[in-house]
Amino acid sequence: MKSEIIAVGSEMLTPHRQDTNSLYLTEKLNEIGVSVAFKTIVGDRRKDIVGAIQNALTRTDIVILMGGLGPTEDDLTREALAEALAVKLKRDAPQVAALHARAATWRISMPENNLKQADLIEGATFLDNPNGSAPGQWLETIYSGYRKIIILVPGPPHECKPLFDDECLPRLRDIVPERHLARRTLKAAMIPESQADKLLAPIYTTYTDVETTILAHAGDIQLTLLCTKKNKDLAEQRVEELATKLEEALDDWMYSAEGETLEQIVLYYLGLRQATLAVAESCTGGMVAQRITSVPGSSRSFLGGVVVYSNEMKTAFADVPAELIKQHGAVSSEVASALAEGIRKRTGATLGLGVTGIAGPTGATETKPVGRVYIAVSDAQTTDSFERNFRGSRDRIREWASQQALDLVRRRLI
């Protein structure tokens, strides 16, 4: 069965708010074998909401509407659904009483506009919402000759999630044909998306019963494999079979077979080797350290780091000789190596990492363009330095540089 999630609310069409409920609902739906074919965000305009509902009903079996169930004038989900289905709203007396009782517990008189939360779609039933005043609604109907399930849930996450778990999932399990969804997430670092697809497409396209998607971002490739079968073991077997072939094709580009982040994998290998890491960062401004320390328990292997933006700080905190900077420039292979060696010796770490570069948009020269980055990894025996050239905005270059730096540490550890 296919579903569509419609998030209602003009605030989610601004740069300041985003829909996060749909991620949670997608996970829960997938667990019972329901795929999410579409996600729609629509503003608080009745005509637009009606259109979004009608579109969803023509292409999916289950439609979930989130938000727009409150008491204000712009809460129009109930009214829009009634219009889309050409049915009536009926004010439910028991629900009116429940709203008054709820207001009484707060020792307030209930405003008149709150009563619209007691309006029930013709043919629907209320879904209890113990965490808010707006109940959800469940409706099974026939639309254009096909059976449809329509679910209304409140928008606030602390109301939406428990209501969906307690009221919606049990009903869906009784209706949805037993299906099992197997999922795997593979991740690879620093392989171009086009190269990855050229390498992998001849493999995954032969598995027509496994849905494979590729997502690329700043040096990170994520492959998600989904397979739905009546038999759980068969679904997992198909995903495992495909995953094994993709892993072999990716070789050492791949760093995770279970969806872990690159920083998690680096810390895993550090722990496995009983090794420690310290970093000295210039152009990345502490981004590498931030990524590593976002992982709980990272202090067991990560000793710390310094952001050495100025030449004086490179000398003072990472022991980079001032003459070396003067001779080769702050953005150079030699300085990256000195940063890695200096921070390793200063902290007593097993590995030192040094990053220096030109993130832009200013600071470039004829020989060192924006995006030129030098990364070095040092241990007690050897120091290796790498030159890389990244394109894009300042933020994008910094992201790429931090990804490359972590991947070079990973490669040294394996």
Provide a quick synopsis of the model.
The chain is an alpha/beta fold. Helices cover 40% and strands 26% of the residues.
Largest sheet, order of strands side by side? 2-1-3-8-7-6
- CATH C-level of the largest domain: Alpha Beta
Q: What value does the Rg take, in angstroms?
A: 28 Å
| Euclidean distance between termini CA atoms | 43 Å
Tell me the major beta sheet.
Answer: 6 strands, mixed
Number of helices: 13
- Structural class label: alpha/beta
Taken from the alpha-carbon principal axes, the silhouette is elongated
The CATH architecture name of the largest domain reads: 3-Layer(aba) Sandwich
CATH topology of the largest domain: Molybdenum Cofactor Biosythetic Enzyme, Chain A
Describe the structure.
- This protein has 3 domains: 2-175, 3-Layer(aba) Sandwich (Molybdenum Cofactor Biosythetic Enzyme, Chain A); 180-256, Alpha-Beta Plaits; 262-413, CinA-like (Maf protein, Alpha-Beta Complex), CATH 3.90.950.20.
- Helix content is 40%, strand content 26%.
- The chain is built from 13 helices and 17 strands.
- It has helices spanning 21-31, 46-59, 77-85, 93-105, 157-175, 193-204, 232-250, 262-272, 287-293, 311-318, 322-328, 333-347, 394-413, and strands at residues 2-8, 35-42, 62-66, 89-91, 119-121, 125-127, 136-143, 146-153, 180-189, 211-217, 220-229, 254-256, 277-281, 302-307, 351-357, 372-378, 383-389.
- A 6-stranded mixed beta sheet has the order 2-1-3-8-7-6, with helices on both faces. Strands 14-13-15-16-17 form a 5-stranded mixed beta sheet, with helices on both faces. It has a 4-stranded antiparallel beta sheet with strand order 10-11-9-12.
- Strand 1 (2-8), helix 1 (21-31) and strand 2 form a beta-alpha-beta unit.
- Helix 1 (21-31) runs parallel beside helix 5 and helix 6 (193-204) packs across helix 7 (232-250).
- The two termini are 43 Å apart.
